[in-house]
Amino acid sequence: MIYKRSSALFKEAQKYIPGGVNSPVRAFNAVGGEPIYVKEAKGAYLYDEDGNKLIDYIASWGPMILGHAYQPVVDAVIEKTKKGTSYGIPTEIETQIAKLAVEMVPGIDKIRFVNSGTEACMSAVRLARGFTGKDKIIKFAGCYHGHSDSFLIQAGSGAVTFGAPNSPGVTKGTAKDTLLANYNDLAGVKKLIEANQGEIACIIIEPVPGNMGCIIPKEGFLEGLRELCHQHSILLIFDEVMTGFRLAKGGVQELLDVQADIVTFGKVVGGGLPVGAFAAREEIMNHLAPEGPVYQAGTLSGNPLAMAAGLAMLQSLNENNEVFKSLADKTKYLHEGIAKVLTAHEIPHSINRLGSMVSVHFNEDPVVDFDSAAKANNETFKKYFHGMLKRGVYLPPSAFESYFLNDALSYADLDFTIQALNDLAPELKN
Ligand SMILES: *Cc1c(COP(=O)(O)O)cnc(C)c1O
């Protein structure tokens, strides 16, 4: 493959944009080499500036669950654009998408829309603190909740990849209110709570993490957190920015039947436009301004363009519940195909999958938390990533990221991917 134009564009970008990118993982630092520049995308495929066609397994990190340039979303956005893209005044479509989201997701009465997953998680924690009158929060090593200060403590993917789990610029004062636990370690969480009796406002967690690769919750782990939160008057926040409207219509809460107190959304909920949201039962949401004292606002929050994209996406998913099964089937097929090739070539691996999320760790021990994810062989991952890219398959450019399948992928695309790995596998051995 030729990357001449991408390479030139990256050089030019680096002159004017820090590192040439507007979000660090795009720069390929974790895998080496230079990023490709996308010219356009349709369905399951990316087309880069050098004319290469690639099968896309990141789907803009999740939002493009029904494929790129999905017609109902494209049409909705075009129609709205003609009528003006933002007024800063209420519009009917905000209530339409709120009502639909509340119907799709278990246990929520009200929802507020923001512009990113970061904003959603930051606001959810403020709301939890305001509601409980307590300051401290518990998060899990390797879980990512956006780039706001309280979360940049062992924050998974981007932050880990760049070796700065505690980013400069986050004050000690902020860091001391964020307590760290290990994913899948309920006893550890119990100890933290006991050592900080009466001080913890909330536990925030990716219920199925995707930011240290995909990790599966052990049986009883999420249920145990639910119980601990009940016992200690702590709010449980599920960060479903990745999993919401992806693993099921009602996200992990529906799929695994565990109810959180506050849920955050992003990615799919915006259909590819910048949207985030947080939601809870009425008692909690009524603490938000203007109804309650906890302040939260946004000039472009709920703008008609973003809401039109999000509504068209949620409607499509709501009317087509089989899509979640279709995605899970495709992901299982890919998982089994990859596993078969790696096993045949005696390449140590461990693959985690749930629904349409899957990740390949080059380590034969089970990957259950951040430490075990970090033990995987990153040199093999780099060769794997570049080898697949060369063969026309775009995987996440970091071992700490999940793949996000989209329903435009055909079984022929999956077979192509598995065959590409089969060609590449001998190179991965040494
Ligand atoms: C992507 C992500 C975020 C941050 O969302 P942005 O829209 O990038 O700010 C938060 N939490 C999780 C679980 C995510 O995957």
Automatic annotation (TrEMBL):
Subcellular location per the Swiss-Prot or TrEMBL entry: Cytoplasm
GO molecular function: glutamate-1-semialdehyde 2,1-aminomutase activity; pyridoxal phosphate binding; transaminase activity
Keyword 4Fe-4S attributed: no
Modification sites for N6-(pyridoxal phosphate)lysine: 267
Domain of life from the UniProt record: Bacteria
Coiled coil: none
Record InterPro entries: 4pyrrol_synth_GluAld_NH2Trfase, Aminotrans_3, Aminotrans_3_PPA_site, PyrdxlP-dep_Trfase, PyrdxlP-dep_Trfase_major, PyrdxlP-dep_Trfase_small
Biological or metabolic pathway of the protein: Porphyrin-containing compound metabolism; protoporphyrin-IX biosynthesis; 5-aminolevulinate from L-glutamyl-tRNA(Glu): step 2/2
Enzyme class: isomerase
GO biological process entries: protoporphyrinogen IX biosynthetic process
Keyword check for Isomerase: yes
Keywords: Cytoplasm, Isomerase, Porphyrin biosynthesis, Pyridoxal phosphate
Reaction equation(s) it catalyzes: (S)-4-amino-5-oxopentanoate = 5-aminolevulinate
Cofactor: pyridoxal 5'-phosphate
This protein's GO CC annotations: cytoplasm
E.C. designation(s): 5.4.3.8
Description of how the protein assembles with itself and partners: Homodimer.
Family of this protein: Belongs to the class-III pyridoxal-phosphate-dependent aminotransferase family. HemL subfamily.
UniProt protein name: Glutamate-1-semialdehyde 2,1-aminomutase
Organism: Psychroflexus maritimus
